[in-house]
Q: What sequence folds into this?
């Protein structure tokens, strides 16, 4: 890793680095997403507008002015609405299944085992919330009961999600009245599939309502469990310093890149990369040691718990291989390009798939089993280490871009930071009140949750970085997760130095609280943390979440998970701005609901705005409107 | 409603008042009339600091006011309230300045202090650095009751916090007979909120003097004050818009505001604007808000003990008893003993106690402090003794002056009535020696004597010790020691200044001699005084050492590359700003003029202390100007490279008298000149005309006239 760190890195510098790596790609004849985007352009217009239906084999049906209905008679809004619901259900299923896996790991945890309870306090807190007896119990006994209770949330025949009670009462009532309180998680996914089956729902209101409910089962169900149980198992994040961008890869070390989402694999890889036996082996192979770095949300998970550096986000997964210095790219689930298989073959890189959920051609498949996790992880690390000697020196080029970042602002950590500015004579601790005071006085105008992926439809990271800069310059504090968080980290915006890009109000807050202006809250599954944060703010303020001057934004999103997230964020009462259309343009009634009248149900809705500059202005305006409504 | 709108209204109010007052005074005196604040080299300091404008006429003040108005923007962003707040403070300075445009003493005959002189600002340097003054409070408005006002002020004083009062609280504390003034660190600034301009003026000047901040670089001032000036505001309800606007400025500068005015729910801002109804609990709340930690020394005496009382003067009419070394036998002494000879914390009194003397009687006293410790060295005895003055002065109602056998101590009626007796002197000395020198003093006892015969005997013994010490000090030259020391005690305020302390050149503040530095280094090996070897001399004439250069470079963090020890022209030593004296070259006579901080008049260089002092400070190297301690003047190393102390052509009379004996001795030794001090001019000879000075020097045959030109 280069000793020098850059305070800030511009988009242009990052693009120049990518261009240099693409030269390597051309030299070795590798395929890249940049090329594949060209191959796929122009995209199918019917698909883009969401008006292509292939749910039954009578079609595919496509809506045109001359053919306004499908063979079954479904109109454009029915088709768009079904596609939208299925998209949401896909995301909800994915996130929630991630949560389920973590719950299983929690169930397997044991004293002295590969997986242990690292935050018993949090476990007890959750148990109490769920009315599980905690007094005098063995912590693992308790962990297993909590895990089992959590797992039952996926399939319980009756009742609604337990975590909904975390919201302010007024919000719980909104959900009840709107009929979107999620029941068992699997049931909401199943029902979504059922509703969209041939010959079921085509009523826009019904499809959108179920989208919100399926999203809720993710955000206040599966994702929230994923987050909470990960904290119990691996520790609740607290501020930790790390580095970001491709310069974190080390020329003279074994580089293992972890990629995906599920921390139960990456935690083990990190552990075994420090194993003296493995380090000794690396030295034997001629390397100085073993360097683990992350890509995508796995990077967020290990960065915020161990300070493992973040090499890049979603659209940089090929770049790490193109450095020629990647001994292994080890993946778990979600957002992994199948392209990594053929790409790795152009280099010495081992592409290691580990999950039955994400199996790909041209990979070394080492199935990662939670019961034999340590053994599996060690084998993977060893494979990477032994691969060091196969590096082709003439292909090695690591762009010397590296920033400092402070990450790991869980809700618990944020409260602790806020405690630092309370006065023991005047204030209570462990509340959101200091933050609320800053917003009420106007020192901060509000907050923006910037989340989501990268998408070649938007210049890579441009929207994330530009919007962040604009928000902080306007005294709006930003919370980030997922690939948005990495965009911030790569540009230097997660460093405390970034206070110098802020308006005076946010700058002062950063100085007093000793935080960066953009708070890293974790991976995409951790957007559930943001929901808890918003709920706690609303509760401490005594208002509903939809009244708090906060908006959400996913300017470069691409996945089904992101759409599921959008649904639960809006359902939670937070206006959400999207920089990419969720394939709904062809359904005016659906758009009318999503971008309009669902506000009557949940107090918030979507705005789709492809002009990033304008989107920023609109977000600020929305925040100011909410301030006016509050009389502040 | 709303904090922002309140600030905007308040800053408008201050601006319009400033405009009105300025127009009035311009109508009276005209735009060309001079506009100067007395005893300062920093013009209207707030305007100079934040805008970089040097106001010298009322017309220029008008221009400045236009710039102030331009800063009062009205966006709903914090920048606007911050800028408007700082502009409000400047507008306050304008209002106050209009008073000084008419007379240099507008507050004469009132209970208010008004403008602070540069000398006063500089006087704060050392106590701020040593944290004897851990912070400042600006108290605005009347407290809920007179009793509470007094309790608060005394509470702050007892913690060493410097109190500035504005408005109704002043009448409150005066009605209760509280002694106020710069000396007791409790200043009634002015009746109106705009007198806060004087406080901010003091703050900005401290920043320029100690921080070498560039006038006009407003952000640099804010960064400095936020990081290094531990001030805060207590504003009693009802808090008007105009006070809130000033508060916004204070918060921008890094000073939190604590108030009990809770009518607007948008006000509280963490660590910045704290709304708290329990006014009686404000002291601790405020200290926490500004992160001020008070080092508490619990001393078992019946009166308060705080640096706030250090400047307290006990007048004859308030005095119960006096120990006067000029009339009766008195002596103070530290002695190193063997451990078995000392019982820790034993305080004995031999002779009658204070209550056994007549009221107003002059009594003899001797107090001998016996210490022991593995790392104790006899060289430290004098170092500890020199601290007695400040230790005893911190006692409420006790005044101490002088040293050795020429001391004078007065005890006030009030403190006597509170039960203050002889043994309490022992308690204070014991507690302070043990807390400040805990790494070298293991055990300490104090013996106090008031029996005339015994004191006489002890005085004679002590004088023998003093003679021995003086003998040793005389032989202690820069050549006779192996190492010098750095002193970076001031870096809390003056981050790029480094003092090099040698036996023949003490620290410029006058408070750190080579022995002090040595003791400090022994006490805290990683502390402010670090050893500088002197093995690699480059130039003997100027006192240039490779080792010294490396040290200043390292400890100034690269701000300074080289200094000489004995030259004022070639890489002179820098200063933090709290120097006792400033020396500058006088071109006509080829000599140097030295002026001490206390001297308020002009010098033949056409500049006052303040103006001369502003030429250097903050770690800036300015050839031809040099800050130094009083005792350096008679040193044989004083500007040795330029020919030495024979260059001195002018000194304030009081300073000259203070150092005459040693100065004459050195001159005799160096040049064979008798009675050299009489050849040096002072303000009785000439005040600001260099021609007059030259005539005098010619008349008395001053040696400088035969020396090489300085430039």
A:
């Amino acid at each position: 890793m280069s000793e020098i760190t850059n305070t800030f890195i511009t988009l242009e510098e990052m693009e120049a680095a990518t261009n240099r790596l693409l030269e390597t790609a051309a030299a070795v004849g590798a395929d890249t997403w940049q090329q594949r985007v060209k191959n796929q352009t122009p995209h199918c217009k019917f698909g883009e507008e969401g008006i292509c239906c292939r749910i039954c084999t009578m079609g595919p049906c496509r809506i045109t002015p001359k053919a306004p209905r499908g063979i079954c008679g479904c109109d454009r809004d029915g088709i768009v609405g079904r596609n939208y619901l299925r998209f949401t259900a896909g995301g909800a299923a994915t996130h929630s299944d991630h949560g389920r896996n973590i719950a299983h790991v929690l169930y397997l945890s044991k004293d002295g085992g590969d997986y242990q309870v690292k935050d018993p306090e949090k476990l007890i807190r959750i148990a109490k919330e769920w009315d599980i007896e905690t007094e005098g119990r063995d912590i693992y006994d308790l962990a297993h009961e909590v895990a089992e209770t959590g797992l039952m949330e996926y399939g319980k025949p009756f009742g609604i999600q337990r975590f909904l009670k975390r919201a302010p009462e007024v919000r719980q009532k909104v959900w009840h009245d709107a009929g979107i309180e999620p029941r068992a998680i699997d049931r909401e996914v199943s029902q979504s599939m059922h509703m969209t089956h041939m010959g079921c729902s085509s009523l826009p209101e019904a499809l959108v309502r179920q989208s919100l409910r399926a999203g809720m089962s993710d955000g206040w169900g599966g994702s929230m469990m994923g987050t909470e149980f990960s904290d119990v198992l691996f520790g609740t994040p607290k501020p930790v310093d790390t580095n970001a961008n491709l310069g974190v890869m080390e020329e003279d070390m074994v580089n293992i890149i972890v990629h995906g989402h599920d921390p139960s694999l990456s935690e083990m890889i990190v552990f075994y990369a420090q194993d003296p036996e493995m380090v000794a082996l690396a030295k034997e192979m001629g390397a100085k040691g073993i360097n683990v770095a992350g890509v995508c949300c796995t990077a967020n998970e290990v960065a915020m718990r161990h300070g493992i550096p973040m090499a890049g986000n979603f659209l940089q997964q090929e770049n790490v291989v193109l450095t020629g210095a990647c001994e292994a790219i080890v993946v778990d689930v979600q957002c992994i390009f199948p392209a990594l298989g053929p790409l790795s073959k152009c280099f010495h890189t081992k592409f290691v798939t580990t999950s039955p959920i994400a199996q790909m051609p041209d990979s070394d498949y080492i199935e990662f089993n939670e019961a034999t996790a340590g053994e599996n992880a060690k084998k993977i690390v060893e494979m990477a280490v032994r691969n060091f000697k196969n590096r082709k020196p003439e292909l090695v080029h690591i762009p010397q871009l590296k920033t400092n970042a402070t990450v790991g602002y869980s809700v618990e950590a944020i409260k602790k930071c806020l405690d630092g500015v309370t006065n023991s004579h005047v204030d209570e601790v462990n509340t959101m009140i200091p933050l609320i005071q800053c917003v009420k006085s106007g020192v901060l105008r509000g907050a923006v949750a910037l989340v989501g992926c990268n998408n070649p439809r938007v210049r890579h990271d441009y929207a994330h970085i530009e919007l962040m800069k604009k928000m902080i310059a306007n005294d709006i504090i930003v919370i980030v997760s997922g690939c948005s968080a990495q965009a911030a980290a790569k540009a230097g915006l997660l460093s405390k130095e970034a206070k110098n890009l802020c308006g005076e109000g946010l700058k002062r807050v950063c100085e007093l609280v000793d935080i960066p202006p953009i708070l890293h809250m974790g991976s995409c599954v951790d957007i559930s943390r943001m929901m808890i944060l918003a709920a706690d703010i609303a509760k401490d303020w005594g208002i509903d979440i939809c009244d708090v001057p906060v908006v959400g934004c996913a300017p470069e999103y691409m996945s089904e998970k992101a759409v599921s997230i959008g649904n639960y964020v809006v359902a939670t009462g937070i206006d959400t701005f999207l920089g990419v259309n969720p394939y709904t343009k062809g359904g005016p009634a659906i758009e009318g609901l999503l971008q309009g009248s669902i506000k009557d149900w949940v107090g918030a809705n979507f705005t789709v705005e492809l002009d990033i500059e304008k989107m920023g202005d609109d977000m600020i305006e929305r925040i100011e409107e909410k301030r006016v409504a509050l009389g502040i | 409603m709303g904090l922002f709108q309140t600030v905007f209204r308040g800053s408008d109010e201050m601006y319009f008042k400033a405009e009105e007052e300025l127009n009035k005074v311009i109508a009276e005196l005209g735009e060309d009339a001079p506009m100067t604040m007395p005893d300062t080299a920093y013009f209207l300091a707030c305007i100079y600091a934040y805008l970089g404008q040097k106001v010298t006429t009322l017309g220029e003040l008008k221009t400045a006011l236009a710039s102030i108005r331009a800063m009062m923007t009205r966006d709903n962003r914090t920048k606007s309230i911050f800028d408007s707040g700082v502009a409000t403070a400047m507008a306050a300075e304008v209002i106050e300045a209009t008073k000084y445009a008419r007379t240099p003493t507008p507050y004469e005959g009132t209970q208010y202090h008004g403008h602070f002189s540069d000398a006063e600002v500089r006087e704060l340097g050392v106590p701020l650095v040593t944290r004897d003054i851990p912070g400042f409070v600006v108290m605005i408005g009347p407290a809920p009751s007179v009793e509470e006002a007094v309790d608060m002020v005394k509470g702050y004083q007892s913690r060493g916090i410097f109190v500035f009062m504005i408005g109704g609280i002043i009448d409150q504390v005066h009605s209760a007979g509280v002694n106020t003034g710069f000396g007791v660190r409790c200043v009634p600034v002015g009746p109106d909120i705009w007198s806060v301009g004087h406080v901010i003026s003091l703050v900005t000047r401290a920043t320029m003097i100690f921080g070498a901040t560039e006038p006009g670089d407003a952000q640099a001032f804010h960064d400095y004050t936020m990081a290094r000036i531990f001030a805060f505001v207590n504003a009693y309800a009802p808090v008007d818009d105009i006070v809130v606007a000033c508060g916004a400025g204070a918060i921008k500068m890094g000073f939190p505001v604590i108030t009990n005015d809770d009518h607007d729910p948008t006000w509280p801002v963490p660590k910045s604007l704290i709304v708290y109804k329990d006014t009686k609990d404000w002291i601790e709340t405020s200290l926490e808000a500004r992160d001020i930690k008070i080092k508490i020394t619990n001393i078992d005496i019946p009166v308060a003990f705080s640096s706030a009382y250090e400047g307290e003067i006990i007048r004859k009419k308030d005095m119960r008893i006096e120990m006067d070394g000029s009339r009766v036998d008195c002596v103070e002494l530290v002695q190193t003993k063997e451990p078995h000879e000392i019982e820790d914390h034993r305080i004995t009194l031999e002779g009658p106690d204070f209550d056994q003397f007549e009221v107003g009687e002059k009594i003899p006293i001797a107090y001998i402090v016996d210490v022991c410790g593995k790392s104790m060295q006899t060289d430290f005895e004098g170092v500890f003794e020199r601290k007695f003055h400040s230790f005893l002065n911190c006692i409420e109602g006790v005044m101490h002056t002088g040293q050795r056998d020429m001391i004078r101590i007065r005890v006030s009626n009030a403190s006597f009535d509170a039960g203050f007796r002889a043994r309490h002197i022992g308690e204070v000395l014991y507690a302070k020696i043990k807390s400040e020198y805990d790494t070298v003093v293991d055990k300490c006892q104090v013996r106090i004597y008031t029996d005339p015969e015994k004191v006489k005997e002890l005085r004679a013994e002590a004088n023998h010790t003093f003679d021995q010490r003086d003998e040793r000090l005389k032989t202690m030259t820069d050549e006779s020691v192996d190492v010098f020391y750095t002193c970076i005690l001031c870096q809390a305020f003056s981050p790029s200044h480094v003092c090099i302390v040698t036996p023949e050149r003490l620290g410029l503040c006058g408070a750190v001699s080579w022995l002090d530095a040595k003791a400090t280094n022994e006490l805290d090996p990683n502390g402010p005084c670090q050893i500088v070897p002197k093995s690699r001399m480059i130039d003997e004439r100027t006192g240039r050492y490779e080792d010294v250069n490396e040290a200043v470079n390292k400890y100034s963090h690269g701000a300074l590359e080289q200094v000489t020890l004995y030259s004022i022209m070639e890489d002179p030593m820098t200063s933090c700003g709290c120097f006792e004296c400033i020396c500058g070259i006088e071109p006509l006579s080829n000599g140097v003029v030295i002026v001490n901080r206390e001297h308020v008049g002009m010098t033949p260089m056409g500049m006052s202390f303040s103006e001369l002092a502003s030429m250097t400070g903050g770690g800036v190297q300015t050839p031809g100007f040099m800050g130094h301690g009083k005792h350096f003047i008679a040193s044989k190393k004083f500007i040795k490279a330029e020919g030495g102390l024979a260059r001195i052509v002018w000194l304030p009379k009081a300073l000259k008298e203070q150092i005459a004996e040693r100065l004459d001795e050195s001159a005799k030794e160096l040049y064979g000149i008798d009675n050299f001090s009489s050849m040096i001019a002072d303000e009785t000879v000439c005040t600001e005309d260099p021609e007059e000075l030259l005539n005098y020097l010619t008349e008395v045959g001053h040696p400088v006239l035969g020396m090489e030109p300085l430039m």
About this structure: The domain at 408-630 of chain A is CATH 3.40.50.2030 (Rossmann fold).
